[in-house]
Specification:
alpha+beta; single chain; 34% helix; four-stranded antiparallel sheet; rod-shaped
């Protein structure tokens, strides 16, 4: 009888051990599957946010900008042209004709921004050509929805005014 009880006890220990091992294995499989799903989702998100088209789409909705030149050419549209009808640039000519030689060739530009609808804040305009002697006066309301900017440029070393580029950011 004692042998039979030991065999039964041994079987019940083996059975208990087997149940515990099955339980631990099941938990391990569930955790591994959950970890795999999380890693897959992270990989998909990482791939989506590093996609160039996605970045452009987000940037054009958050901080729309446009790069243009003195000839009114749109060089880069970062989403701003969906809010703008037109950008006009008029060279008013040289100013201070009787000025000192170092002050000659100062150009006066007028930039007129024509939005498609009302913009509560004037778009931000900044120069891109690296000219040190440039002044952009804050935009003022024109007729209708227009914003008008006055720009004074002194190209260094006989530089050409036609090479000047601007970046404009539409504030919404």
């Amino acid at each position: 009888m004692t042998e039979q009880k030991q065999t039964q006890t041994s079987r019940s220990h083996k059975s208990s051990l087997r149940i515990v091992l099955e339980f631990v294995t099941a938990i391990g499989v569930i955790l591994a599957a959950a970890f795999g799903v999380v890693e897959f989702i992270d990989w998909r998100i990482e791939r989506a946010i590093n996609d160039e088209q996605f970045i452009r789409k987000v940037a054009s909705n958050i901080r729309p900008y446009v790069i243009f030149d003195v000839d009114e050419s749109i060089l880069v549209d970062g989403g701003a042209m969906q809010y703008l009808e037109r950008i006009c640039v008029e060279i008013k000519g040289e100013t201070w004709e009787n000025a000192k030689p170092e002050k000659k060739n100062v150009y006066n530009l007028e930039i007129i921004v024509i939005p498609k609808s009302y913009l509560a804040h004037a778009p931000l305009i900044e120069p891109l050509s690296g000219l040190r002697d440039i002044v952009i006066y804050d935009g003022e309301r024109g007729t209708g929805y227009q914003w008008t900017y006055e720009v004074l440029i002194h190209p260094p070393y006989g530089g050409d005014i036609k090479t000047q580029k601007f970046r404009m950011e539409v504030l919404r």
